[in-house]
Design goal:
Number of helices: 5
Oligomer: single chain
Structural class: mainly beta
Distance between the termini: 35 Å
Number of strands: 50
Shape: globular
Helix content: under 10%
Low-confidence stretches: 1-35, 100-133
Largest sheet: 7 strands, antiparallel
């Protein structure tokens, strides 16, 4: 599902509550627990591992100890990641003497007199022998730019020998030499092409064209071969070759919204279904076949949880979950030796590459690929042969800001929307705006301090101040209490990264955890008008429904039975709500006392609508991608829907949530994609 924007869009901003107890993530239940889970210095890391600072710094340098760095240069680590690292290397480390151990005292031996000549001769012999016998130093991983063109270069696919890369740019495919700037255009058609992947034998490149076609072409150019046609959501468009370069694996719809993986022979066209997803969701995608051709790795997207990374024998069987991927997943692949799976996830707030052993029998936590940087997506390996493998990936950066537009009323009561201007701006992510009940302040989520935090500002955008300091988890969905004294939000602090609900005083202080079960996702808290209850979305019933609990925390009561996620309570004794993204667009109404769940509008989406005293404001995304998005108003009295203006086409359905109307209905604030840049990066000598 998505709670922030569609899980199936692949845009890379927080998407949905994670699967309970599947990721082996840290299990904090509040800010104090977050502090105890994270170690904020070399000294604390050394104390946790019962070693000296000198030893753990060497382990980080030589053994891949999972230590993270702030931009200031200071370090931090998570106990759970250290424990996973220790469980795989601890026996070897136990046999290793600590760096600061005192050497054993030498046994007493008779003192002998050495002549100067003998001593010099021995020194020369030892030196020559050491120079002769010492091994050549292993080449270190090196991160270098692979492309630096203006605009966006699509997901890379390295050739098996690692000397070339194919990628999409401006809707066509290009091939570039890795070690110089020589490039050439491979395709040139009016339809957009992407998702290229090189065959293991190096003879063909498979790719997608338009919304459905799958084709192959020689990397030298020439005629194309049409292989299949399969229309799927963007996040399921990745293709994989089988190890023998004879067949392709891809996603195809097998229900109204769910997809399965299929394998098709290039020569005969024979197609065979490989997976049968269980439960609701968008299904399975991002396939990758192990180098030996025996195992298939892929992403599974359930409705109520984060995507998981699963493995399945190519001969068939039951999929095995390796780990949860995070709010979103952007590509996965096997390491050339077939021992690990490398994937892109924002499980710590920023997209980066992670690795996990492929032979795990139960879900576990992955380790970061330290050689790669942040905002890393769509990893691709060369096949090493006798050389160290190369790893390519897309470095994708987006700038989301908040824009504000004025709503103007004419004498006849008609409304119109004036052109917008940039409102709350930084080089980091700004999203989830929400006006206070009195309209004097605005709450929003920002990464301007380096991590996801809740911020407050005056209603004109001035005097921004940080309200929370949780420094690690993903925070989203700030909402005001009815008296304007508190802010509710959800954060990825539950078991396996489940969303949990917190409340914090506007005057400051430590957030208070309201969720009681860290194994269940709770999100988007919204107060009732009398302030006694808090509505929220939750997957605790097995599907995502609306619940409510006492404002101070306590036992929750289920409200809906047919789905619900993003809710507001009106003055007429009704609640209005949308459902999770996988359920599609639509806005429903239900009496606060219970009763029928009635759909009243077809086009609003979660996160892009707001309630006003006389009606509902929302964005209609049912237009072409390059067209302005209509802003519409549904009048409670007349039951008519009218267009009052439009917002820029930078307001996309895949943006982080962002749409709020001031209480006096004068201002509209929303999230806008102000810029995007994507270059390709290369890790040489990957290990």
């Amino acid at each position: 599902m998505f709670v922030g924007h569609p899980a199936y869009n692949g845009s890379g901003v927080p998407g949905g509550p994670p699967i309970p107890n599947a990721g082996g993530q840290p299990d904090p239940v509040g800010e104090s627990s977050l502090s105890s889970e994270r170690l904020d210095s070399w000294k604390e890391i050394a104390s946790h591992l019962k070693r000296s600072v000198r030893t753990v710094t060497r382990w980080e340098r030589e053994q891949g100890l999972p230590v993270h760095r702030h931009k200031t240069g200071t370090v931090y680590a998570y106990k759970s990641e250290l424990d996973v690292w220790w469980s795989s290397r601890g026996q070897q480390m136990e046999l290793e003497p600590p760096d600061d151990a005192s050497p054993p005292a030498p046994k007493s031996k008779p003192i002998r007199k050495w002549t100067l000549a003998a001593a010099v001769g021995l020194l020369v012999a030892v030196t020559v022998g050491w120079v002769t016998l010492r091994p050549n130093p292993e080449p270190q991983p090196k991160l270098v730019p692979l492309t630096t063109y203006p605009g966006i270069e699509g997901a890379p696919a390295l050739s098996p020998d690692g000397n070339q890369v194919v990628f999409a740019r401006n809707g066509d495919l290009f091939i570039k030499q890795v070690d110089d700037e020589t490039s050439r255009q491979l395709t040139n058609t009016p339809e957009a092409e992407g998702a290229p992947v090189w065959s293991p034998d190096g003879r063909r490149v498979a790719f997608r064209r338009g919304p459905a076609l799958i084709l192959t072409i020689s990397p030298l150019g020439g005629p194309e071969t049409r292989v299949a046609e399969a229309r799927v959501p963007d996040s399921l468009r990745r293709i994989a070759w089988t190890a023998d370069s004879q067949s392709l694996i891809f996603s195809e719809l097998t229900s109204a919204v769910g997809s399965s993986l299929f394998m098709i022979s290039i020569a005969s066209g024979e197609k065979r279904q490989l997976t049968w997803p269980s439960g609701p969701g968008i299904g399975e995608g991002s396939p990758s076949v192990s180098p030996d051709g025996q195992t298939l790795a892929f992403a599974h997207y359930p409705q109520d949880s984060w995507p998981t990374i699963d493995v399945l024998p190519m001969s068939g069987g039951v999929p095995r979950v390796l780990t949860t991927a995070g709010n979103f997943l952007a590509g996965l692949t096997w390491s050339p030796d077939g021992k690990e799976i490398v994937f892109s996830s924002d499980r710590t707030g920023v997209p980066r590459l992670w690795r996990i052993p492929a032979n795990l029998l139960s879900p576990s936590s992955p380790l970061p690929v330290e050689a790669a940087g942040e905002n890393a997506r769509f990893p691709s390996f060369s096949q090493a042969g006798n050389q160290r493998p190369r790893l390519a990936y897309q470095k994708f950066e987006q700038d989301f800001d908040l824009r504000r537009a004025e709503l103007e009323r004419s004498g006849a009561g008609r409304q119109s929307l004036k052109p917008s201007s940039r409102f709350l701006v930084s080089t980091k992510l700004e999203s989830h705006p929400r006006f206070s009940p009195d309209g004097k302040r605005i709450a929003f989520m920002s990464q301007r301090s380096g991590t996801h935090e809740v911020w407050l500002a005056d209603s004109d955008g001035s005097n921004p101040v940080r309200l929370t300091s949780m420094r690690g988890p993903v925070l989203n969905g700030p909402r005001w209490s009815s008296d304007g004294r508190q802010i509710g939000f959800h954060a990825t602090t539950g078991r396996g990264g489940n969303y949990q609900i917190y409340v914090v005083n506007v005057a400051g202080g430590r957030p208070v955890l309201l969720s009681r079960d860290e194994y269940q996702p709770d999100f988007l808290p919204t107060w009732t008008r009398d302030g006694r209850w808090i509505y929220f979305g939750s997957g605790r019933s097995g599907t995502v429904q609306l619940w409510k609990m006492p404002a101070g925390g306590g036992d929750a009561v289920q409200i809906t039975k047919s789905g619900g996620a993003d809710v507001r309570e009106s003055a007429d004794g009704s609640i209005y709500y949308t459902k999770v993204g996988e359920a599609g667009a639509g806005l429903w109404r239900m009496a606060t006392k219970g009763g029928d769940e009635t759909k009243i509008l077809d086009t609003p989406w979660s996160g892009f609508w707001d309630l006003a005293p006389k009606g509902i404001y929302f964005i209609d995304f049912g237009v072409q991608d390059d067209a302005p998005r209509p802003v519409k108003f549904f009048n409670f009295e007349t039951h008519e829907t009218t267009q009052i203006g439009a917002v820029e086409n930078s307001v996309k359905l895949g943006n982080p949530f962002g749409f709020t109307v001031s209480p006096d209905e004068r201002w509209l604030v929303y999230t806008s994609l102000e810029g995007a840049e994507a270059d390709l990066m290369l890790v040489d000598n990957y290990r």
